[in-house]
């Protein structure tokens, strides 16, 4: 495993790799790695000859300075976790990625203004900015993203469509803890007790899914009422949407591919999840 901290060195190493005709899989991360990231790496390893994992806490996608400051960082621990799984780790400084003030502006229509976009203005422009730069530096054949960040996945697909980058975006299933909580780097900021409370959100949504009620409004009302009982959780949103458009659906019977998206705050930690309904 090679650790690289500069764009120049990264391009130099990748040039040699590509000259030998090897395929490259990219796993972009912000560090604080866990088994969910390992699943992305393993998927990338199974489909490519070389895996590049990036570790960069991107300030552009944080609209809350306190959130950025508290985001967990432990490069040494991350490197130990992925030893033997990853070929190249790209862990640049902020000044390496943004030597000058970034000026990129992307237009994703309504896609970046709803849900996470409504709660975190500018977040997805920051995501698109770093991902596009990583794509330009690395020029991977495939890039791997978790379905937990479902709206982000839609944004990345739209980004590739707009920029016409020849990169296959691979979506990977949510990886969960034994209690059902979706694995997230932010979970490291939670106590054991709060993690157990947070896991009940997934349980509530799964039970609502199994009720067999076709009307999304009825399901939502049930979920909202149950989550309201959980303290100290504050719900940001719960929606049942069409997988392709992220627009709300009325009847599950009339829709083909439906997912539930949820965001909530426990203590001062914001978590999201995705549960596939059909």
Question: How would you describe what is shown here?
Answer:
The protein is an alpha/beta fold and 278 residues long. The protein has helices at 7-19, 35-47, 65-70, 75-82, 94-97, 116-119, 123-138, 150-163, 192-209, 216-228; strands at 2-4, 24-29, 50-55, 88-90, 142-146, 168-172, 233-242, 258-266, 269-276. Strands 1-4-3-2-5-6 form a 6-stranded parallel sheet, sandwiched between helices. A 3-stranded antiparallel sheet has the order 7-8-9, covered by helices on one side. Strand 2, helix 2 and strand 3 (50-55) form a beta-alpha-beta unit. Helix 7 packs across helix 8 and helix 9 (192-209) packs antiparallel against helix 10.
SSE topology:
Elements: E1 2-4, H1 7-19, E2 24-29, H2 35-47, E3 50-55, H3 65-70, H4 75-82, E4 88-90, H5 94-97, H6 116-119, H7 123-138, E5 142-146, H8 150-163, E6 168-172, H9 192-209, H10 216-228, E7 233-242, E8 258-266, E9 269-276
Parallel strand pairs: 1-4, 2-3, 2-5, 3-4, 5-6
Antiparallel strand pairs: 7-8, 8-9
Helix pairs in contact: 7-8, 9-10
**Helical content class:** 25-40%
Number of H/I helices: 10
Going by helix content, strand content and strand pairing, the class is alpha/beta
Helix and strand run: EHEHEHHEHHHEHEHHEEE
Query: End-to-end span in angstroms?
Result: 40 Å
What overall geometry do the principal axes of the alpha carbons give?
A: globular
Report the uncertain regions: none
Main-sheet strand order equals 1-4-3-2-5-6
What is the arithmetic mean of pLDDT? 96
Radius of gyration: 19 Å
Number of strands: 9
Characterize the largest beta sheet: strand count, sense, and whether it forms a barrel: 6 strands, parallel
**Strand composition percent:** 15-25%
């Amino acid at each position: 495993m090679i650790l690289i901290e500069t764009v120049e060195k990264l391009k130099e190493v990748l040039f040699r790799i590509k000259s030998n005709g090897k395929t490259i899989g990219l796993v972009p991360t912000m560090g604080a790695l866990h088994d969910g990231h390992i699943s992305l790496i393993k998927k990338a390893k199974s489909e490519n000859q070389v895996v590049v994992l990036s570790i960069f806490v991107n300030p552009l996608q944080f609209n809350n300075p306190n959130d950025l400051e508290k985001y967990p960082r432990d490069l040494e621990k991350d490197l130990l976790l992925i030893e033997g799984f990853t070929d190249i780790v790209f862990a640049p400084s902020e000044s390496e990625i943004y030597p000058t003030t970034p000026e990129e502006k992307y237009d994703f229509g309504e896609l970046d203004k709803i849900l996470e976009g409504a709660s975190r203005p500018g977040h997805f422009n920051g995501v698109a900015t770093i991902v596009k730069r990583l794509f330009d530096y690395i020029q991977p054949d495939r890039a791997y993203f978790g379905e937990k960040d479902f709206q982000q996945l839609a944004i990345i697909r739209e980004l590739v469509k707009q920029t016409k980058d020849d990169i296959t975006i691979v979506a990977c299933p949510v990886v969960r803890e034994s209690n059902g909580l979706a694995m997230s780097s932010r979970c490291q900021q939670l106590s054991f007790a709060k993690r157990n409370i947070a896991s009940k959100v997934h349980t509530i949504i799964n039970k609502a899914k199994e009720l067999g009620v076709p009307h999304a409004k009825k399901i939502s009302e049930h979920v909202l009422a149950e989550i309201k009982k959980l303290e100290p959780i504050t719900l940001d949103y719960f929606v049942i949407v069409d997988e392709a458009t992220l627009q709300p659906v009325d009847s599950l019977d009339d829709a083909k591919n439906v997912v539930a998206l949820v965001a909530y705050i426990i203590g001062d930690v914001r978590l999201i999840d995705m549960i596939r309904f059909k």
